[in-house]
Each structure stands twice: as C-alpha cells, then as structure tokens.
Amino acid sequence: MRATGAPAPLVGRQAEIAAVTEVLDRARRGTGGALVLWGEPGIGKTALLDHVTATSPDFAPLAVQPARCESGTPFAGLDTLLRPVEHLIATLPVSQAAALRGVLAGEVTAAGRSLIAVAVLSLLSALAVDRPLLIVVDDAHRLDAETEFVLGFVARRVGTEPVVVLVADHDAPAGGSWEGADPLAVRPLADDHAAQLVAAAHPGLDGPEVTRAVKAGGGNPLALHELPVPIDDLAAGTVPVGPRLREAFAERLRTMPAPAREFVVLMAAARADGDQLTLARSARSRAPEGPVWEETTWSGLLAGTPDRPALRHPVVRAAVYASASPSERGNAHRTLAAALPPGSRGHVWHRAATVHDVDEEIAGLLERTVPSGAGAVPILRRAAELSADPAAATRRLAGAAVAAWHGGDATMARRLLADARSLTDEVLVTRASRGLRGVLELAEGSLERVHRSISRDIAAFDDPRMGVELGAAALHAGWSAARDDLVGETLTRLAGLTTPGLPDVLPVVRTWWGPATDPARAASSAELGDVMAHISRVESQLLPASPLGLVWGLDEPLADAVHALVRRHRRHADGTSLAAALARIARLDIAAGRWGAAQDAAAEGLASAERIGAEHIAAECRNCLGWLAAARGDGRSVDHLTVRTLQLARPRGDRAVSASAHWNRGMAALAAGRADAALDLLARLDEHGHEAAHPVVALLASLDTIEAAVHARRPEIGRRRAEALDAWVRRTGAPWARYTAHLARALLDEPALDVPGASRRPFDHGRARLLYGEWLRRQRRRRDARQQLDAAAETFHALGARPMLERARREQGLIMAPARRATAVGAGMTTLTAQERRVAQLAAGDLTNREIGARLRISDRTVGHHLSNVFAKLGLCSRRDLAATGIAGRRDSGSVATPDELVQVGGETSRASA
Description:
By secondary structure, the chain is mainly α. Helices cover 62% and strands 5% of the residues. Strand 6 and strand 7 form a beta hairpin.
C-alpha cells in the first residue's frame, strides 16, 4: 500500500472499481463484506487498493503490508494492524485485551488463535461504531500463518458490521484462510486501455511502436511500464522482462507447491509452437490423486486446457522463465528433450538450451532443423551463439535476419544483420543475407542511396537468380524516384545475367520499366499482356509496379499475377511480402471498381506494414485509402492520410509516393468544387524538378488534371496533358488511354464512350457519362442526357462515390420535364432571402458579378456566395438557366430596388426610409 494524497489515475479498471464500490456502499449502510483481489504478479492489485483507499475518505483505513522476511514470525502482520489502535485495547473484555497485549508484546501467550481472532473482531467492531472501517491487506501471500488465520476469521464475520476487508493475493480464494470471501479477479488490461498506459508511460512513441508494446506486455501494467521500447524481440518469441516483474514472479514461484512450480517452469521452457503433448502428459502424471493442473488453475498464470496447457501470455512465459533458477530451467529443458524423439526439432532445441559453451555439433543440428518463416529466428540465433567459427555464426545470424524480415519484423532483422556484420567481412554478410541490407534501406532510406547499395550488392553474387531478385528491388527504387538513369543502369545489369527464362522476358521488362516519355520504346498493351503470366512464373519480382501495370493497360493479367502472390505469401506466412502484395492489389482493385476489396486490402496491408516497420509499403497503402476517400468526398481523411505520407516521402526522394498523395489531394479539392486549388496540386505532377513530379502518376491523373484546368479556365494546362495522353496512346494503344484521350478532347471542346475496353474502369467510365450528359443537357437534348446521367448515377451509387453521385443527381434535376421543373423552381423561389432574390434578378439580366456588386454596393465575392446559394436552392447550374425562370421580370415584395432606393446598412442593403 502506498496510498497518500490524490489517487493515481487508473486505466481500464472500471469493472473492478465498480465491484469494490458496491461492497463499500453496503458497508456504509451497515453491512460489511470481504473481497479477495487476485491475479498474476504485476497485474495492478496494489494500484487498485491504493485507488480505493484514496477515494474513500469517509472510511477509517487500517493497512497490513507484510514484509517477506517476517512471514515466519507469528502474528507479525497482526502487530502492524493493531499498533495504530493500541490505545483502544483497554476497552475490550479482560481476556481479549490480555490476548492482544501479548501479541503486541511479542510474547507467546497461552491464549489460542481463536481467542485472539475474537478479540480482533471485537476491536474492529468498536472502531467502526462512529465511522466505517476499511482494512486493506496487500501481498497476502507474505502473511505469517497466524495473522492469515485471524484475518480470515474476521473476513468471514463482518457481514453485520460496517467493516470492509480487501485482500490482494496471488491465488483465488478456493479454500484456505480466505475461504468464504468473495473473489475479484484482476484481469489483464484490454488492448485499448493498455495502449493508453503505454502512451502515458513512454511518451513520444508512434502508433506502430505503441501497438508492438501492447502486444509484448500482455495487458500486465507492470510489464508495460518496464518494457524497453520500441520492442524488438517479438519475432524471436521472447519478451524483455524488467527487474521488478522478474522479482515479483520469482516470489510467486517460491510460494507455489513444488509440483506446481516445476510444471509452470516446464511450460515456460517449452517451445511456443510445440511440446504440447509432453506438457499434457506431465500434468496428468505428477500427482494422480491431485493433478498438478488443478493445483495451478487458481494461480491466474494458465490458459488452455489440461490437454493443451499453456501460460496465459508470452510476457508470463518470459517472466516465469527469467525468474526460475538456472537449475530449474536446465531440469525443464532436459525433461522436455528426453520426452521428444531424438533428432527432432524440439529435442535438439532443448538439448541446445542446456549447453553453456560453444558446440558446433549442436549448432549444426539446430541449423538442419530450421523451419520456414519467423520460427527460424530463435533457432538460428541460438545456433550462432553456439558457433565456434565466426563465418558460421555470420551465416546463421544473416539467415535469422532474413527470416525476421519475411516474418514481419524489420527491427529485429536490422539488429541481427548488424550483429552479423560485426563478425566478418561485408561480402560474406551480403551473400548470407541475400542482399538484405539494401532491401531494409528500401523501407526507410533515400531511394538513390538504396539503389546504389543494391547495385553494389548484385556484384557480390555468383547466383544470377539473386541478381534478378536484387535487380528487381533496384528497379523499384529507381522508378519510384523517377530516375530514368538509375532504371537504365539496372536494366543493363540484368541484361548481363544468364538466368533461365530471363532472356525471353527481358525485352518486355525493359519496355515497361523504361522511361514513360521514350517514344522509341513503342509496344502494344496486348503484346505485353501476353507475356505477363510467363513472367509471373519465371521471375515474379520483375512484375511491374501497379501504377505501371495500369498505365500500360495490363490491369487484368497483373491482377491475376498479384492475387496468386497474395495466396502464396499467406500460405507461407511471409508477412512482409504479403503486405507489399496487398498494397499492389489494392491499387488494381480500385481501377477495376472493386472498391470494397481495395479498402480491405489496403487497410490490412497498412496495419501489417506499420507493425513490420516497412514505411514504403505503408505509404502505398495510405495512398490507396486516400484515393478512395477523395472519390467518396471524405476530404478530412485525405488530409490525414497524406500528411504522414508526404513527411516521410520527401526526405527519401520517393516521387511516386509524393505524386500519388498530391493526386489524392487534387481529387479531393476538385470534388469540393475548388478547381484552382486542385489544379495547383495536379499541375505539379509533370513539373520538371518538383518533388511530386512523376510521369506515370501524371498520366494516370490526366483526367482530373484536365477537368481542373477547364474549370479553372486554364485550358493550356489541360491541352498539354492531353498531348501527353495522345503520345501514350500512340506508344501503347492502351484502351484506358485512348478512352481518356477522347474524353479529354471532349472536355476541351474538341464524346468517348464507345472506345473498346472503356468500361473496365467503372469510375472513369461513369465520369465520362456524367460529363457527356452535362454536355447533352446544355444542348437541350434532354432525353439523351437523361440516359447518360442515369447510367452515371447508377455507377457512382454502386461505388459509393458520393461527390460524383450528388453532381449527377443535380444534373438529373435540371432535365426534369418543364412542368415539374417549373414547380421545383417555384418551390425554391420561396426559400430565397431578399438579398439572394435581388442578386438572382440582376444575374438573370446578364449583369456580371462586378456590375451586380456595384449596383448593390457589396463585394464581388459576396455576389458569388449569394449566386451559389441561389443555384443550389433552385436546382440550377448556370445564369442561362436562371434567366429561363423569368425571375428578371418579377416585381414583388422581394424585387430589386433602384440604386437611389438603396442604402448601405452594416454591410447589407435595405430600403431607405422616407
């Protein structure tokens, strides 16, 4: 107990506080009770007791916090409880007073424990006459047996007194001294509450680091406080254990019966992915008349069933293992090794755990039993520790780093790679790690430096397949940086490799990875699509990035190939490769109109990439989510997603990511009707030297850029982008490009719906129908316009593209039959304010905003604001439509006054009074 002053804030303990408060409320009404708070060490029992004491000032508190060294001293705990109220002992009957004085004097009295217990109950009842009493017993497992008996006696008999007894213990009260008291399990914190605690205990952590800490801490508050952050040992199956938590669990083990303690240590030593049958046999065989499982059930440390026993969480496993003695750990590993088949992975692992010096034989056996995936990390680390040869240790550490990276732990991969590089020369590390250094730099470093690093590493390999694998990473780095020179260097290196099948596909690879503005490299999308399946079988690393596939019109074959990669990576539990594939497929699903699937893939990929520490993958996922948010009119989400993306992309020189973020922001601005702001963002995509300039993204964003240019009255920018589109059509013949080029010309007043393949991208196809429908309506071809607008609205409704749907519905309203239109306009007229009516009448009379402002003595901007309201209320979109309503000739109570009749009043106009 440490409660003094203001109560410390508790996170996530509302249920426990409510249960204790209910007992306290009953005591305030004269009915006492007892609660035993139980749970694993560090779970927060003491903090809960402190909070309750500090928030219950109407109770008189008495506390017992026994010392471990006095647990064998009779009545030591009772002495602590009675000292503050020693002066009241004289009020008790003589025999009871004598018994308690003997306890305080430390004398062995003839009085039995029962008399002492009755005397304590009488004393506490007397204390509670004027004020309810709160007795708090922390660390009850340290109590001496005599005090435990007395306090248990009292706890069962306070039901008729305003007395509450709160006890904190390791085990649930399933018998013994506390039998009869109500149990209150203090459970691990939920993840959201654990995250709050981590953020408060370790300020400055970002979201992924908090998530990793929460996962490592297992909801144990003390573990969360003591975790070194960021956590970087999760992939190895271990969790760092702080000194206070280690000591708390060591004390817990000391208080357990020997069979239960041995079994718990055995579970801590067992492999997380095996040894279950051995543990189950041990649980059943240790004590037939009282199975060890039953003995340990009430400890709060266990989970599972007797057939599949396990400790509650890795943090409990780590704490138990760390707090056990070396001999206990060794005995557990020998027991497990003896129970497993010789030569099996588990047998070798447990044999290795008993070795305390280098042993190349055991190290070799470990290496031969390495599984695929993240499970290889601890085995290869242990093999490296036992290696006598530095070169062998390097090879094993580098292999562990590769396994950690593919298992989804970039931080651990970096640590292991650094350990390997400290042992031997760089070339050996590069070969053993399959060029992992450059791949790790790709996750967060400068793309130009990454490209140089990977290019150097290619030369270290004799295996051409490794050259292709690293070359693909270098291609991605150069392309993302919009550096045609770096891409060209890599393609030249690849041309010198002799991998089977590579010569057949390399010309195609050179075509689609080559400069987007190189007219000499002409090829048809159909031709490239024919070899896509072949490349996915031969060298899947060389598949184009999703924006490249889209710009070449390879959506469908590339989507088939990437879906196959997603299935493969899920099957092999390759977390990093899976996250990258999810980012790629999200972009392809967006283009195909599978927005729900794209949202799911991008969200899953983002969560994995942030957990892994692969920021380049996370940025791609954020950009996919940002595009969807922009298309759905969620500008706030667009801003949130692009801020972090741009912050991290700029120093890396990642122009592909920056360009996509600018595109998303431009789309959001265009959907919000801010054409000038949209054009300012989108025009940067092909601005030489700008950080967001990327030719492929500029091509894909052409339609948004041209529309923004038209609305912003900057047609020259639109024409320049249309010319680039025309050039791309001549080079590739991609259906999307031909279709978009036709639509661009229509937007620039030079329709596009009949281009083959146009409907494969439903969002753009619906947009074309909307634009065409708008043009038809302006030409008074209402029936034709309705057909296009209805189809566009149906598409946007299915996709959830709210801004475009609203725009289509406004256009549909404008082509209603004249009678219905007049009714709608007439109804809207009644909603106009006097000032809006005046502005509408003058605008219908063909006056400009400047002329209207001068007439009414208001600013041009205010005129524009009033006109926007008028158009919205009347369902109109132009001054020509406004003139057709006849509002200019109306003279009613809201009619326009002459200039002489108007005066300025507080920035508004009103009729002058005579």
